[in-house]
Amino acid sequence: MHKLGIIVPYRNRPEQLSIFKKTIKTYLKEIDYELIVVEQADSKDFNRGKLLNIGFIEASLLNCDYVVFHDVDLIPINADYSYSPYPVHLIGSLDTPEGFKRETFDTYFGGVTLFPSKLFKVINGYTNEYYGWGFEDDNLLLRCIETSISLDSKTITQDGRNGIGLQFNGKNSFVAIPNTIKKGRDVTLMVNFSIDEIKTNKKEITDIFSIFSIPGFDTTLTYNSFRNFTFQFWKKDLSSMSITSDHLPDGTYTATIVIENRSKDKCATFYLNGNKIGSLQFDRIKPLDSKYIYLGVGDPERETKNNWFFGKINTFAVYEHALPSTTISRLYRNVDKSLFNFECYDKLNLYYDSKYVRENTILDLSGNNNNGYVSNCTQVITKISRDITVPLPHRRQGEFRALPHDENGYTDGYWLNWKSRENQIDYYDKYYKKSTNLKEDGITNCEYKIISKEVENNNTYLKVEL
Asked: In sequence order, what DSSP letters do the residues of 93-144 get, joined into one string?
């Protein structure tokens, strides 16, 4: 017979705690469980991971052989809390109030997470170091990977090729290409590239890397430190529009942007690896009339917000035509072939392959003699890479309802607490080093002071100072 410990990190949400306790009492009638609420009673920034470690220590004293780390604002609608011999994320779908945003994605490991106690000890629990909001659950997933705990996975198809790419150093590398896009015409932009690593900048609010950009009010394709690709453009009235992908890992991609200016329903569509990410309609788009299209930077002439790219770019092309989705799919599947092998080659306005660089000049293969200028890039060999395997949490398809509360993390382009940004920077440092320092940071060095402890039936309420 298994015994469950429900561990809730808590501060200043009495109404939500009341709702949660009533729901759990009704919901877990058939399960032997202990509810352990751990309240942070000091004035320090909230530390979810450390509070959960404290709750786990208490659950161990109560002989719980598995635990669920449970946010107080997530209420089960249809969820399975039964024992599992490996970690399981319990949120399959999340009902959120109107106007309230809570993002879930493939690698999401927070909110409601089940662990067998013996495996939680293997990874030494959560990090104690992350104050503020976020990334303790990302760190938790790294600890599972590092200790070879059982995880699920998915395969993401890639489209690397055997050839030559241009390496961008993330500091001052760029390519300047003459901008020949004509006002009011249909246009398709296509770029094949690789994300090598997310280089974080401690002085920036977040990290944005421009793969290509038509500067000014930048019409640009970017990747960011939330692992999203975004195509952003501007309407004639200077209002911004953007299409954003789900979270995607480092790797090799082909992005295609189709802007239809001449159709009745004007729209911009973003494809990634041959798949449609999204489409937005507009009335009139701001003219794409900058002198240059830049690869690897937003604008090298700016003093700030250059958005330098760290990675490789293999090919870049511009068509004087709105390519149909069927053609985009064929081009993606045959990335090794020249674009001259496909229909619409006669519509190529600009075409660059990083193999064809002479000193500081990249040759325009379209025949239009619009050669580009290469600055601080080096040519490197690229190899074919058709897919990558991404570790994911095992997941049950539980349904939960989120209770509304004030946003705690990144909102309206800024962190509400800078410590959250520090957590993000630390997470990427550990991600690329493949080491979380878990032996020295976790349950075994979790120092805290118990201010009070109340026990009633199977409910334990701890007030602690960290």
From this structure: EEE--TT------TT---SEEEEEHHHHHHTTSS-S---SSS-HHHHHHHHH
Question: What is the average per-residue pLDDT within 397-410?
Answer: 85
Burial class (CB in 10 A: 0-12, 13-18, 19+), 298: buried
DSSP-derived letter for residue 403 is: P
Q: Which of 387, 415, 443 is the last residue of a domain?
A: 387
Looking at residue 286, the DSSP 8-state letter turns out to be P
Q: Any idea what the CATH number is for the domain that residue 328 is in?
A: 2.60.120.200
Boundary of a domain, candidates 355, 387, 419: 387
Please check whether residues 125 and 36 belong to one and the same domain: yes
Distance, CA of 391 to chain centre: 14
**Which tokens go with 20?**
């949660």
pLDDT tens per residue, range 198-223: 999 998 899 999 999 999 899 999 99
**Residue 375, domain extent:** 163-387
Any idea what the Cα angle at residue 91 is, between residues 86 and 92, rounded to 5°?
105
